[in-house]
Amino acid sequence: MAQLKYQLQQAFESSQAPLGFAPDPASMERFLALCHRRRYPGKTAIIRPGDPANTLYYVVEGSLAVCTEDEQGRELILAYINRGQFIGEMGLFVAQAARESVVRTRTPCEMAEVSYERLFQLMEGPLREECPKILCAIGSQLTHRLLRTSRQVSRMAFMDVNNRISRTLLDLCQEPDAMTHPDGTQIRISRQEVSRIVGCSREMVGRVLKQLEEQRMIDVSGKTIVVRGTR
Length: 231
Prior knowledge:
With 231 residues, the chain is of the alpha+beta class. It has 2 domains: 2-156, Jelly Rolls, CATH 2.60.120.10; 160-228, Orthogonal Bundle (Arc Repressor Mutant, subunit A), CATH 1.10.10. The chain has helices at 2-14, 25-33, 116-124, 131-158, 161-172, 191-198, 202-214, and strands spanning 36-40, 45-47, 55-61, 63-69, 75-82, 86-87, 102-105, 109-115, 179-181, 184-188, 218-221, 224-228. A 4-stranded antiparallel β-sheet has the order 1-8-3-6. It is found in: Cytoplasm. Residues 38-123 form the Cyclic nucleotide-binding domain. Pfam families: cNMP_binding (PF00027), HTH_Crp_2 (PF13545). Homodimer.
């Protein structure tokens, strides 16, 4: 088992496969058939800080948010996780005794779950042929998350709040739940949630959205925002 884990780590570190590489549907069906399926209602924490880091999750349906909190309970949204993505994959490569972030469902979700120990056993047996493809998909996702995290850190360090909010709105236009609109792209998000992504107060978000609306860059109606010119 330890040898297989070492081989997985080495394969991940040396992989130069295209970022878009992913297992074919048949491979994923075989993988999912060997996982435990669970359903969670919306706004439910499925992972909390301190939970054992011993399970890989795959989003079959739904959307989740990965968050971190400070000692005062202030929350920062690190990433959104959507259908077809993994959660908890870092523990396959880096030893973690416990989880450090909160993962909360944004919508009702169906998840496929498998313990790391069970996954390693499957990759030595029934999933031996699918192992390289699944591993490459996980590595690709880790790479994308690292890029997003790097951008987020850079924005926090070098951009003012106005620019951070503007960039965040553009990022949200790329999410699966964004909708096309005659004037651009329509997203639905509260000021509170934007503040937790950007790292500022809800009141500041409201002021910046008002400025952007006055500049005809967005249209706002409650939680609905149309970002102009983004189709």
